[in-house]
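Give me the fold.
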Amino acid sequence: MEWLSGRVILVWGFKRALLVILAGAVGVLALPPFGFFAAMFISFTLLVWLLDGVAAGPDSGLLGRLWPAFFTGWLFGFGYFVAGLWWLGHALLIDADEFAWALPLAILGLPAFLAVFYGVATVLARVLWSDGIGRIAALACSFGIAEWLRSFLFTGFPWNAIGYGAMPIPLMMQSAHVIGMLGVTVLAVFVFAAPALLGTRQGRLPGIGLAVLIAAAHFGYGYYALSQPEAPLTDAKTVPVVRIVQPSIDQEAKMDTAADRAAIFDRHLALSVQPPANGGKRPDIIVWPETAVPFILTDNRDALARIADQLDDDQILITGAVRVEDMGPGVEPRYYNSIYVIDGRGQIIGASDKTHLVPFGEYVPFEHILSYLGIENVVELPGGFSAAAKRQLLTLPDGLKFYPLICYEIIFPNEMTPEIRQANAILNVTNDAWFGDTPGPYQHFLQARVRAVEQGLPLIRSANTGISAFVDPHGRVLSGIDYNQQGFIDTTLGGATLSRIDDKARKIYFWLIVGVVALTALISRMGFISRVN
């Protein structure tokens, strides 16, 4: 290992740049659909050795000394995000005549921007860099801070945060309930980078020993949490049966004629009224995906009447739809990406609008400026969607409360407002048909499962083309429908975990972990940690 680390440390020029990009790209194998978490050990071990080798000229100023570290982290992030997000270009090919020109921006531009966060991380790490365990701690601390910044700056985009690489299966997800995805990220980077100590001797025993203890605690707590029973379902007279509908409709069909849109509506209805499999109980609640209704529902009384004809009086339909708000004469109406709750009489009895919109998908930032450059929304609506000021809990007639998250809102831990403490389940409706059968829908599904674990709540997820599923509060898939399959699944709604940890506590634990790891790096930097081989 010392021979290998020496070769990596000394590599230079084009070979060095290529190796850093490759190190980042290899880490993507830890994410869905692969789930090979050991790939992260390769990525971060190489990154540590490559950062060991960064050097600036003797006469360089502050920026000159920091630039090699930043560029190394940026290249690492560029490789990671290109390999992990290339599938975003698929959405632009749905209407290729209009948006194909933007493919380089989606495939290379966004990764180049996101890579800046990892460049900042490696700069922070190099400021605290030292021999032995200190540099591993510095890297873990800095990546935790970088992922925290990535979760909210510039509207936020925490997709494929490093911590997800340490959570491919439920056994390895449970730590997120205590310390959150960001806390897992800090400790995961420490563990993933620890093998670098095998190539440099200093701090080998304490570093590897501590990494083993962290990994053992991660697995041990997972085993313990999975053995715990769930709390009984509250706020409901009876335990309801929920049906998830997955129509598997091609995105291009949603953009075609009125006859095509009517056929789409008919398919949803037909799947909703199918008899339960194996003579089971009729569903009490039926869930359709994001924007399942392909027209403005409130302008189509016939559609509401058809829903009423198909549902029994005590059944409930929850569906994604576009909601329009009339702003008065001479003013463009506002459109919202919404969820409706419709009762058996065809009446809309509840609604919740999306609060966190997709940039360039649902709205254009700085629209007045960018419109002159020909940059428009991928979704064709005048002025795009509007964001709701506040998320509304969906309260059903029997007292059940669902916490609604539309599409990629579920990837944001900070979208979980205090109201979620009142919820019986997380409801996620999405339309991943935009991304085809690529890693995108599988990565999205993993992040949704981790949100369920963090909150200790069951997850009801309806996706147009998949992956639709019932997920228990420990992230286990109770039943689901594979990608690009048409059908439905019926499952009784379960309860939450017995002891739900508050989001405020998770944030405190995250910053405590960051503080302890940063202190370890600082003490090592100051030379107070002895060199133990």
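The radius of gyration is 25 Å.
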